[in-house]
Structure formats: structure tokens, C-alpha cells
Amino acid sequence: MNQFDVIIIGSGLSGLQCGYILSKEGYNVCIVEQHSQIGGCLQNFTRDGCIFDTGIHYIGGLDEGQSLNRYFKYFGLMDKLNLKRLDEGAFDIINFANDPTDYKFAQGHDNFAETLAEQFPASRKALHDYTDKLREMCNHFPLYNLEYKNLDVSEMNFFSDNAFDYIKAITPDTKLQNVLAGTNPLYAGLPEKTPLYVHALVNNSFIESAYRVVDGSSMIAETMAASILQHGGTIMTNAKVDRFIMENGAISSVELSNKEVLSAKNFISSIHPARTLAMIEEKYLRKAYRERIMNLENTTSNFTLYVVFNQDSFEYLNHNQYYYKKDDVWLTHEDTDKDWPFNFLLITPATSRSDKYADCATIMAYMDITDVKQWENTTIGRRGADYNEFKKQKTEQVLDLVEQRFPGFRKTIKKVYASSPLTYRDYTGTVGGSLYGILKDCNDPLKTLISPKTKIPNLLLTGQNIILHGVLGVTIGSVTTCSELLGLEYLVKKIKNAG
Asked: Whose CA is closest to 202, among 191, 188, 224, 187?
């Protein structure tokens, strides 16, 4: 029987970060990963010689002195990654059907406001007020600025502010309202639920600075894994945890699907809280706590195209392209199959081969897990001919919309691959293939704010469900989780000194 100080379930960004922090501090750490490849959404895959990212498509806040830059220095990443800065004047471009205007998101808060003010001159003050508000919201999160304080969840007014209502209040211009919310696919925002802090934290870091990892984000996982091993840690792949074994009200060990048992003093789960609790016998958790976690609503999923281009046929875009069929960018559950898709996000990954032409593109459109419910009990590669026909039909629908923005797009395609919410579910282990985990709700913020502490004394949670999704949100969550073992002030000082 193997004995460790800490067992970490899942080798996505949060699992690797927790493994790095704790192994660096002398803990005997073991990370267990159910798949053959580490990294979770940091993984890449290759088709026809092209490298595709699965989840991390661009990263914000990496300029010197900015929040993620300081964290990445601590993790030993900044001097290891090959980064490509997106266009200063337009890292994101928002487009609407029947509107030829490119609405550009520029890097830098003043630059962001002034660039949009060229198209919305009457709203110049509102735009500067908006960027000020983003920074103010981020300052409510002490770890955003590497401060020693804990997040104060008692400030309920802050957590209950609604993103849709705030944006609507700052400007009467409905087009500008939708432009400011145009990066909605980064958080799958619902107008009636999404808190302003989610919108602010996600958007502010990209306005600070925006980068792509050249040749794929898996380098983040590989670099961190190498450091964990160097610090004496263990990483096990093809190691799926089936259940927690309890003794005296605490976890003593985990049993893997091959019946191997691993023991530890502490356990950290980076997988979805509902999946975590499902591995604990009912008698060890209060029914009310279990039901609250199990019944939380999750964000929607995606239908994704992975397009391989004919050589030198489609120019590399050093920005991300958001396109909407209608002027309303907010996600609703009322879009009919006939209207689908109502949007897409197109990204051309950065490659070391060429700055002029793109090798490939990733195209994402919202899709709910219920749309593929009839195949929910199938596995990858064994879903049947009707599922493949479904994917072909949906692929054509997405390409029809892409053609509106990029006429002749189909002619550039050498090959196209597609994935559904089921693919995402099975590769990432998320509930329902959810893109961003638990849906934060400004109407009942305490219900959807998940603490890293659980009702089991030696079980902690981490990952996108704790603070927020995305690279920055997950990083802050990992530090919050590890501070339960190391102390927040001690850990923040270590991170600051590393930068």
C-alpha cells in the first residue's frame, strides 16, 4: 500500500498547481489521473500535423507585474513558455450579422475605452467608467493582487451584482451593451443569473494583456509535471479513483478502478464537486450538504469544429473572432434547432511554422448536453452511425454561419473534425460536458460559492468550481486550496518573492 502526505485527484491545471505548490514545500504528493495523458484542458491533440488546444486558447494578465505573470513566475513557467502577444489594437473582434463593423477589444484599459469610443463617441465616459468598474471588481479578490486577505463572502452586494443589468445601466446604446458582453462564450453568461464579478474577472485580465501559447498549451502541463517530479512528487496516469475509503469520519485512502489502494493524510479533488461527493458513502455526509452540491446547475457545453486548412489558404488571425447571428449575445435556452447556431468563436492557434498563414482553426458554438441525450450512455468511438450523421449535420450548420463572416471559408478546408458535449464530458470528466463548471448565480450567491473546505476534515476541493474558471480563476483557486494546508500569508509571500 502506497502512503503519501497528499493525494490529488485530477491532473488539470488546478491539480498540477496544487501538486507543484505542495511538493515544493516538502509534501510527499501523488497526483492520480484517469486518462493516459495529463493536463485536462491543457492537453493538445494533433490531426494531420496540426496542433489543437482542447481548452486553453488564450491567456490574459501575463505582462510584467500583472497578476498571472507573477503567479506564472512562481510556477517556473514564464521563462519556459513560447508566448505570442495578440494584436494590441484588437485581441478580440466582435461582429454581428448584417453589420459590417469590426468592434475591437484593445489591450490596455484606456486603449480599450478609446478604441470603442471611435464607434460610440457619445459613450466615451461610460466606456472609461466600465473599465474602472472592472478593475474595482477585481480588487475585491485579494489574491488577484497577491494580498494576504481571504475573500470576504460577507460582501453580498458585491456578489449579487448582475452583469447584464450593470452593462445595461451604464449605456442606453443596445449595440454597445452587446459589444461589451460580446465575449460571452468565455463564461457562458445568462442575463438573469451571471454575476458582474464573473464578467469582470474574465474580461479584465485579457484587457490587461492577451497571449497565445505557441504550438499548444500542453507545454504548461509538461513543465509543471517535470517540476513536481523533480520535487519528489508522483504522477500516476490511467489511475481512475472509484471511491474514498473512510476511517473515523475522515478519508484514509482511495481505491482505484484496478483495485489498487493509495493512502494519504490529506486529499485534494480537482474534479467536479458532485463527482467528488459521489465517491463518498452517503452516511458520511449530511443529506442537505450533498443535495445542495449535487443539484447545482452547470454551465452549458460546446459543439466544436477542428479545421485543418489547405496550405497557405487562410491567413493567421492574431485575434479571436466572435460572431453573432443576432444582436443579442447573451446565452438563452430558447434557441431552436432551426436557429442553431446563433454564434461562433473562431480561433487560429499560434504555430512556430508561420506567422502569415494558419495551419488550422478551432470553431466553437454553444450546445447543451440535452441535444445529444440519446447517446449519453455511449463512449468515444462507439456512438453509432446516427451520432456521426448528427455531427455532420451540425458541422454544416456551423460552417454556414462561418461563411457569412468569411466568404469562401469552405474552400480553404482540407479536413474538419467535430466534437460534441459528450466528447468534452468524456475527456474532461465534467458534469454534462460543462464548459465552466457550476453556474454562478447572482440571485443566490452563497448557494453557488463553493468553499475549498468540505464536510470531510481532510478533503479539500480545487479547480474551476471554487473561485472561478479560466487560467487566472483556477490559479487563484489552487492557491486558496493550498493555503488551507500552508497558511495564506506564508504562501502569498513565497509567490511574491518568486516574482
From this structure: 187
Cell of 431: 458534469
> Please, is 255 exposed, middle or buried when counting C-beta atoms within 10 Å of its C-beta (0-12, 13-18, 19+)?
middle
Sheet holding 301-309, edge to edge: 99-105, 92-96, 320-324, 343-347, 360-367, 301-309, 413-419
Picking from 286, 420, 444, the residue whose alpha carbon sits closest to that of residue 364 is: 420
Three-state SS string over 320-349 comes to EEEEECCCCCCCCCCCCCCCCCCEEEEECC
Cell numbers for 310: 489547405
Residues in contact with 259: Cβ distance below 8 Å, sequence separation at least 6, in sequence order: none
Going 179 to 182 to 187 to 189, the CA torsion angle's sign is: positive
Structural domains in the chain, CATH included, are 2-43+56-76+216-296+436-498 (3.50.50.60)
Per-residue pLDDT of the chain (499 residues; tens, 9 = 90+): 479 999 999 999 999 999 999 999 999 999 999 999 898 888 888 899 888 888 889 999 999 999 999 999 999 999 999 999 999 999 999 999 989 999 999 999 999 999 999 999 999 999 999 999 999 999 888 898 888 766 665 555 778 999 999 999 999 999 999 999 999 999 999 999 999 999 999 999 999 999 999 999 999 999 999 999 999 999 999 999 999 999 999 999 999 999 999 999 999 999 999 999 999 998 998 898 889 889 999 999 999 999 999 999 999 999 999 999 999 999 875 555 678 999 999 999 999 988 899 999 999 999 999 999 999 999 888 999 999 999 999 999 999 999 999 999 999 999 999 999 999 888 877 888 899 999 999 998 888 888 999 999 999 999 999 888 999 999 999 999 999 999 999 999 999 998 6
Cell 470528466 belongs to which residue? 429
| Locus of grid cell 488539470 | 12
Q: Which long-range contacts (CB under 8 A, 24 or more apart) does 189-192 make?
A: 189/163, 189/164, 189/330, 189/331, 190/330, 190/331, 190/332, 190/439, 191/164, 191/330, 191/332, 192/162, 192/164, 192/443
Q: What pTM, to 2 d.p., does this model score?
A: 0.95
From residue 261, how far is each of 1, 2, 242, 265 by CA, in Å?
Answer: 6, 7, 10, 14
Phi, psi of 449 (to 5 degrees): -90, 110
Residue from 331, 414, 21 nearest 164 by CA = 331
Q: Which residues of 383-416 are buried (b: 16+ CB within 10 A; e: fewer)?
A: beeebeebbeebbebbbebbeebbeebeebbeeb
